[in-house]
Amino acid sequence: MLSVRGAVLTACASIAVAQVNGTTNSSTSNCNPYVFDYEGNRYNWYDDDEVVYNGTTLLGNITNIVTAVVANSTFANYPDEYPYPPGIVITIQTAEGIFEKGYGYADAGMQTPMKTNARVEVGSNTKVFVGTLLMQAVEQGLMDVNDYMTSYIPDVAVTVVNSDKITIRHLMTHNTGLFDYGDDIIRNSLGSRQNMTESYSPEELVNSIKGRTVGFAPGNCTEFSYSNTNYVLVGLILEAVHNKSLVELMNEGILQPLNLTGTTFFEGSPDANSLDSHGYYWKYDTMTSSDAILLDTTRWNLNQGWAAGAIISTGRDMVTFARALGKGELFAKGTETFELMNGYFRTSNMALYGFSGYGYGLGESFAPDLHAHGGQTLGFRSTFVFSVDQDFQVFIAQNEAAESTAAVEANQFTTFMPSL
Ligand SMILES: *[C@@H]1O[C@H](CO)[C@@H](O)[C@H](O)[C@H]1NC(C)=O
Ligand SMILES: *[C@@H]1O[C@H](CO)[C@@H](O)[C@H](O)[C@H]1NC(C)=O
Ligand SMILES: *[C@@H]1O[C@H](CO)[C@@H](O)[C@H](O)[C@H]1NC(C)=O
Ligand SMILES: *[C@@H]1O[C@H](CO)[C@@H](O)[C@H](O)[C@H]1NC(C)=O
Ligand SMILES: *[C@@H]1O[C@H](CO)[C@@H](O)[C@H](O)[C@H]1NC(C)=O
Ligand SMILES: *[C@@H]1O[C@H](CO)[C@@H](O)[C@H](O)[C@H]1NC(C)=O
Ligand SMILES: *[C@@H]1O[C@H](CO)[C@@H](O)[C@H](O)[C@H]1NC(C)=O
Ligand SMILES: *[C@@H]1O[C@H](CO)[C@@H](O)[C@H](O)[C@H]1NC(C)=O
Ligand SMILES: *[C@@H]1O[C@H](CO)[C@@H](O)[C@H](O)[C@H]1NC(C)=O
Fold this sequence. Notes:
- The structure is a single chain.
- The chain is of the alpha+beta class.
- It has a domain at about 125-280 and about 300-310 and about 330-365: Beta-lactamase (3-Layer(aba) Sandwich).
- It contains 14 helices and 16 strands.
- The protein has helices at about 1-20, 60-70, 80, 125-140, 155, 170, 185-190, 195, 200-205, 230-240, 245-255, 315-325, 335-340, 405-410; strands at about 35, 40-45, 85-95, 95-105, 110-115, 120, 265, 280-285, 290-295, 310-315, 355-360, 365, 370-375, 380-385, 390-400, 400.
- The strands form 3 sheets. It has an 8-stranded antiparallel β-sheet, with helices on both faces. A 5-stranded mixed β-sheet has the order 2-1-9-8-16, with no helix packed on it. The chain has a 3-stranded antiparallel β-sheet with strand order 6-10-7.
- β12 (about 365) and β13 form a beta hairpin.
- The two termini are about 20 Å apart.
- One 2-acetamido-2-deoxy-beta-D-glucopyranose (NAG) binds near residues 17, 54, 56 and 57.
- This is Beta-lactamase.
- It comes from Sphaeroforma arctica JP610.
C-alpha cells in the first residue's frame, strides 16, 4: 500500500512541475489529474493561481510555520508526503495570536479558493468532543467509566458480542475488540452515490457488525484496536444518561459555552450551505497510479459517522476548543477533569495508529503534553494537536482523503491520524 502511494506521488511529479510552469495540459502523464463524480463526469482541477506545492515540496510559509511550531511532533513529515491537494486550511494559535489561512481550492472543478477558516469535516476529531461530554457526565455523577454498557443501553447491548464485559472505559480507549462498522458501511460508500448518501441510525451502525468476529476480549490490556463502533456506542450511552440527543448535548456542553458558531454536530448529507468546500477522495481502483482517480464525496452522509465523526468545524473553533479543554474550562473541576480525560491507556500496537497513548477521546502523540487526534471522512483529512504548557493549538485540514491503512497513515503527515 505504501509503495502504491509512493508511486502515485512519483508519477504525478511531472504534472505538478508543468503546472508550476503554467501549463494546464496534463494528459501527457500517466497519473490521472482529474476529478470524477459518480456519474463518470470528469473535470480538470488544480491550477497554479497560488502555487503551494511543486511536486516535491510544499512551498511558502506553511512549511516554515508548521516546521517551527510543531517541529517536534509527527507533523514534521507533512510537506514531503503531501499528495496533490485540492485545498488546505491551517490554523495555528499560540500565546502570540492566531495564524490562519486557506490554500488551494475549495472546489477543484470551479477552482474556488479555499477560504481562510473554512468549515470542514473534522472526522474522528469528533471523538475529542464526545470524550469531553463523557467527562462532563462523569463529573456530574451520571456515570462511571467502569460501568458496563449493559447498564445504560440494554436494548442495544443485547446485539453486541461481549457487551456484559465491556465497560465505558473499554469503549473510550478502543479496548473492546469490536469490529469497526466503518470498514463495511463507510468503505462501501465509495461504491456508489446511493451508498454515499445513505442514512443510518446509530443503532443500525451498531447492528451492522452482527456476526463479525471480535479481535480480542474486552479489557485485554495489551490490545488496542481502533473501532468507530466504540464511539457510536458511547454516543448512545450519553443520550441515554441525559435523555437528550447528542446534538443537544454538543450544543449545551461545548458549542454554546465556547460560542463555537462555526461548529455543528451535523445530521445528514452536507452541501454548499453547510461546508465551505467540496470533499474529495483518492481512489485506487486497481492499485496502480494510472487508475488513481479523485471522487467528489462532498455529499457523504455524516450520519454514517455520527458520534465517531459527524462534526463540521473551523480551524478557529477547533483551536478555541483545544485551548479551553487544556485549561479545564469545560469542566467544573477544571484541569483535574482534563487530566482524568488523559488517563492514557498504552499498548505497543497503538503506535500503528499513530498514538503513544489513548485516553477518553484524545490521544498522546509521542511526547508528554502533546495531545492529538486526527480525522478522516470520505472527503476530508485533518489533524488536531495541542500542548497545554506551551499553549499552542493547531488544526490543519485538507479537503482530500485517501485509502487509509495503518501503513499509509504511518507515512502521512499525521502519523497519529486513524481512519475516519
Ligand atoms: C519549467 O520551466 C523551467 C524554466 O523555464 C524549465 O527548465 C523546465 O524544464 C520546465 N519544466 C517543465 C516540466 O516544463
Ligand atoms: C495535450 O497533450 C497531448 C499529448 O501531448 C496532446 O495530444 C493534446 O493535443 C494536448 N491537448 C491540448 C489541449 O493541448
Ligand atoms: C520544489 O521546491 C524545492 C524547494 O525549493 C526544491 O528543492 C525542489 O527541487 C523543487 N521541486 C521541483 C520538482 O521543482
Ligand atoms: C512568508 O511571509 C512573510 C511575511 O508575511 C513574507 O515576507 C515572506 O515572503 C513569506 N515567505 C514565503 C516563502 O512565502
Ligand atoms: C523540540 O526539540 C528541541 C530539541 O530536541 C527542543 O530544544 C525544543 O524545545 C523542542 N520544542 C518543542 C516545541 O517541544
Ligand atoms: C453498497 O452498500 C451495500 C451495503 O453496505 C453493499 O453491499 C454494496 O456492495 C455497496 N455497493 C457498491 C456498488 O459498492
Ligand atoms: C490478549 O489478546 C491477545 C491477542 O488475541 C492474546 O494473545 C492474549 O492472550 C490476550 N491476553 C489476555 C490476558 O487475554
Ligand atoms: C427520553 O426518554 C423517553 C422515555 O424513555 C424516550 O422515549 C426518549 O426517546 C428519550 N429521548 C432521548 C433523546 O433519549
Ligand atoms: C460569538 O461569536 C460570534 C462570531 O463567531 C460573534 O459575533 C459573537 O459576538 C460571539 N458572542 C459572544 C458572546 O462572544
